[in-house]
Amino acid sequence: xxxxxxxxxxxxxxxxxxxxxxxxxxxxxxxxxxxxxxxxxxxxxxxxxxxxxxxxxxxxxxxxxxxxxxxxxxxxxxxxxxxxxxxxxxxxxxxxxxxxxxxxxxxxxxxxxxxxxxxxxxxxxxxxxxxxxxxxxxxxxxxxxxxxxxxxxxxxxxxxxxxxxxxxxxxxxxxxxxxxxxxxxxxxxxxxxxxxxxxxxxxxxxxxxxxxxxxxxxxxxxxxxxxxxxxxxxxxxxxxxxxxxxxxxxxxxxxxxxxxxxxxxxxxxxxxxxxxxxxxxxxxxxx
Length: 287
Fold this sequence. Notes:
By secondary structure, the protein is mainly α. About 75% of the residues lie in helices and about 0% in strands.
């Protein structure tokens, strides 16, 4: 049963936002005396609870749509592996634990916790009425670095905001690519995505432009980290180069006529980009 829920929420996809959350945590800790490992545990718990709630609710809400789509009809709810009521209960439990954990962090995180839940749960509705759903998904994951920084410091700052913009545009860009494989199905069900209204070629072009914004914002954030925290930052710059290379690579292997490597672009390249960049930035702070 536990394995079924891990599969339901695609726990492996945590690698996208988690490294950025850890960077936000590290930035905050760098400004405070000592290292609060208990705070790190609470930040990680918030990430897990929020993501579990968001993914499970998406699967719950889309269960009828998933049953009609040949690509998704083997998911846990349409396949009968998990009951809808059990999944909804799982969502509620994770939402409650998320808010409780925020209570034990600080007042600003507790105050903003319903807003965070509104964004990450509300995403599941967006493809029913707007083609900008990719950016709402990006916004949900973009809460990770800023939320982690707020947990440690209790205040907003430019660098974690920039990192959140990086995550939002990066995720939106690769989600546009991922949605290419469902464009015909989405049209038949009157669902919204950028490929359904722009076509594959224009959607890929827009994804490229969105990732250009990602690259520019990432370079700005890295420059500020270098100026304020890491005078050398050699590992951070190597990580930035690898992240940008992975962005470029996924656009080179996908064309409007050939979508066979969408999963490679979605999971492998973006997973490598996030983990390597996050690891090298944090190592730079430690060393």
